[in-house]
Write a structure and sequence with these properties.
By secondary structure, the protein is of the alpha+beta class. It has four helices and seven strands; from the N terminus they run βααβββαβαββ.
Length: 156
């Protein structure tokens, strides 16, 4: 089951950051990664939580960032950045697919033209994101920035 994320899910979203940004957790403590959940519920925040027997097992969310507080997958102030993670013991059971398709649909309905994300270059998730229409638009030493255009032939 998938449900909307709310303010009561911040602790779980923070836990999911460890799975989504495991390769970034050593950068300047928690602050750069924590930006993805600090003050959750501000305008532009949207998220979903996957449940298995009423227990949260995954989450996907997006949020807008200003230039001066850019996230790892920042492309511009009008493109929300997506974060997604499923607990390791529940991967491969369809939760990620439900979260991803649900969040892409919500972003499109909200009027966004695209979503962006950051992923480790060596992550097997790169090919998964490509199946959902994400394309590489930038790269650093260890990460790719990817964007999915919404409502187009190569996106949702």
């Amino acid at each position: 089951m998938i449900r909307a994320a709310g303010p009561g899910d911040v602790r779980f979203l923070r836990d999911m950051l460890r799975h989504a940004y495991y390769w970034r957790m050593s950068e300047s403590g928690d602050l750069p990664v924590a930006r993805y959940v600090l003050n959750w519920g501000r305008p532009g925040d949207e998220g979903l939580v996957a449940l298995d027997d009423a227990n949260p097992v995954g989450a996907a969310w997006y949020r807008l960032f200003p230039c001066e507080e850019a996230g790892f997958g920042f492309v511009d102030e009008s493109t929300p950045e997506l974060t997604i993670a499923v607990v390791p013991s529940r991967r491969g059971k369809g939760f990620g697919h439900e979260l991803m398709t649900g969040l892409l649909e919500r972003a499109q309905r909200a009027g966004y033209d695209a979503l962006s994300l950051s992923v480790a270059k060596t992550s097997p998730a790169v090919s998964l994101y490509e199946r959902y229409g994400f394309r590489t638009v930038g790269e650093s030493d260890d990460a790719l920035t990817m964007v999915a255009k919404l409502g187009s032939s190569d996106g949702l």
